[in-house]
Fold this protein.
Amino acid sequence: MNAAIVCRDIVKVYNSRKKKVVALNGLNLTVKEGEVFGLLGPNGAGKTTLVRILTTLLKATEGYATVGGYDVDKEESKVREIIGYAGQDSERSAYFRLTVRENLLYFAHTLRDVPRDVAERRIEEIAEAAGFTDRLDRHFIALSGGEKQLVIVMRAILHNPQICFLDEPSKSLDPITARRVRSFLKDYARDHGMTICLTTHNMLEAEDVCDRLALINLGKLRFIGAPSEFKRRVIIKETIEIGVNNIPKPVEDDLLALPGVSKVTHGTVVRLYCDDAFSILPDVVKVMKRAGLRAPVRMVEPSLEDAFAFFVKNGLDEVKEDA
Amino acid sequence: MPNPLRLFYMAVWRNILTLTRYKANFIFEILTSVLFGFGMLILAVAFDTNLLGNMIGSTNYVAFIILGISYQSWQGIALWEAANMFRNELNTGQIDYTFTCPFSRYFYIVCNIAASAVQSTIFFLPLFCVGLYFTMETVTPLGLLLGLSATLISVAALAQLGAIFASLVLRYREVTAIFGFFNFAFQMLTGMFVPFQLLPLPLQIIGYCLPITFGMDLMRHYLMKTIPIMPVTYEWIVLLVELVVLALIAKLAVLYLEKTAKEQGLHYL
């Protein structure tokens, strides 16, 4: 499979009079054609900076990147022809007094050179796929924040780009709309062979939509691989969950005394981190019984959110991607 | 409940912070005020119709002013429309989408200015017709055609300056006072409301460099039979040369300023 996006030794330094901020520090990564690729990282990690470099909005200080085989610096107009883009916080970025249909027609026909009849047909198709047909003739200003965001995502793929960049596409969406957008994007990418590169803080989205993830922190690549690999990589301990929000100290001590148990945490549920959850599960139940506590006890698969939280707290060393 | 006095002085504090944060804008804010005072002085002299007759060969002050105001609305569109469009796009975030699209930034700006000029023409047409009514004794169909052609070329040349100003928005963020300064300077230095011949020589020299001067002078000459500030043929040549030179400068400026803005990122604006 060919590479849709290639980044090699990308450095981006923002220079202002008062300080110098290194947003990206020698980043390397490759996104394959047709895959949905997620960029994850805490706030200020450099995700948006990377997307801006790849979409020709920003110039890298060092290194080079290609999108669809074109150099983002030297062949920017070629790159612009094959990409779609929906920026972060862009739900106001359309003409408020025009309807959704008029907005989409304007952007596709005027700025993306899609023939008018093709654009009109595409608007219908995409609106149907996104479940938005009934709102096509509403004024943009009359839409809710989530609906506006959905229109911006529709605009990004309206001209059928080879590669689409979405910067936090579901940021202001309610869970139901977010799920619809995710399923729409996933199906659309699969049916049209489109490569999607998205940044997100929504772990559910990353797990649900992305074929692979890259984790960036402090401008460096910390992980690249499938979501399942990421969870395996950062959660080194297996987990047992007890359905209470607190347990008495003596019980906690008994649990910590079980073989392989390294940590007990309290929260909405109590969690035990251990080496082999399956082997000690009966012992955990025994401890609970002895203390007269009745609560559900189960082994749990760590979520991507757990993995992300672990990563943010403990960090990961920089990884080198195979070129 | 917030103390009203605190509301007042904190509002002043906020405004002063905003005003002084963008230094160039702040300086031009002061310069505009100075220029405005100076302009008013000249305007007072120009109300003398005898003086007007001696200067431009016509005492038709009403037509003189109405045509000037009509011109001003074209000037406003040509110079500021694209800059305002970019400011709006920066505020809404639309500029990110726009700048990932594959088209010439220069033509994007110029075409948007042209579109707005057409829209503006529709709205100011009644005013222009009133101006024409006051020139009924002097205007001819050929004169009207030539006057409008000169206007078209000079507005096209002005649009090139508009493209430069729009690119400045990409680079320097807050430039409203700079706009205000140039807007007023253009009105005062080009004979829009006071005869060009009344200006002191150093200011006339600046006025010669601005495409509005000759466009407006030619329009008034053809419509009102005023005395042109230069031989008519020279004025046409200067106007065309200004159009070509400014178009070249504008194309380069747009390229350069977009490149510079990309170093820091458009979202930083």
Notes: Chain B has a mean pLDDT of 82. Chain B touches chain A at residues 89, 92-94, 96-103, 259, 262-268 (CB under 8 Å). Chain B has one domain: 4-268.
